[in-house]
Design goal:
It contains 5 helices and 8 strands; from the N terminus they run ββαβββββααβαα. It is an alpha/beta fold and about 170 residues long. A 5-stranded mixed β-sheet has the order 2-1-5-3-4, covered by helices on one side. The protein is elongated, with a radius of gyration of 20 Å.
């Protein structure tokens, strides 16, 4: 049995050790399940595209991409832990020009049938648009959104003074 360590392309954190069995497609399927991404390509540490399972050796370190080119986690600027689109539970929302950072689980767990839950339950199912910094764009008022986000975090809806409740209700429906 061979085993390899797989990382999301461009990162060197949160790798998973997996057994290599069957075909390259089988390994991509295991990587998809372990890393929580849609694994399309495997690269070795030098950026070489792995296109045959026979090329993989025991204890290789492989980088899994969703179709993008190889990003060297040592040299590429995008390899920083805070890079936009890094595959973590953390994400940034650009709501009407104001940035909110939260976790994907905050957006999907408390109200699983909400629009936010549907938008962020699975990675990029909705083709969510991102700004130049990687924040997800949502065309809503930040003043109305902030109490909603706090509700999703803590379970209590606290309305700031001076906020129109009708605007809040309309924002919640989205």
């Amino acid at each position: 049995m061979r085993r390899v360590t797989v990382f999301v392309n461009g990162t060197s954190k949160n790798g998973k050790v997996v057994a290599v069995y069957g075909t390259l497609t089988d390994l991509l399927s295991v990587a998809t399940n372990k890393l929580g991404i849609k694994a399309c390509h495997l690269y070795n540490g030098k950026g070489g595209l792995i296109d045959d399972i026979a090329l993989i050796r025991d204890d290789d370190v492989l980088y899994v991409s969703e179709g993008d080119s190889f990003f060297d986690p040592q040299n590429d600027v995008r390899a920083r832990d805070d890079r936009p689109g890094a595959h973590t539970d953390w994400l940034t929302l650009n709501i009407g020009g104001r940035l909110f950072t939260t976790t994907r689980s905050t957006l999907v767990s408390k109200e699983p049938e909400s629009m936010l839950a549907h938008m962020f339950r699975e990675k990029d199912v909705w083709g969510n648009k991102q700004d130049e910094c990687g924040a997800y764009l949502i065309d809503r008022s930040p003043e109305y959104f902030e109490p909603i986000l706090n509700y999703l975090r803590h379970g209590q809806l606290i309305i700031n003074e001076g906020i129109n409740l009708l605007g809040k209700v309309l924002t919640c429906r989205v």
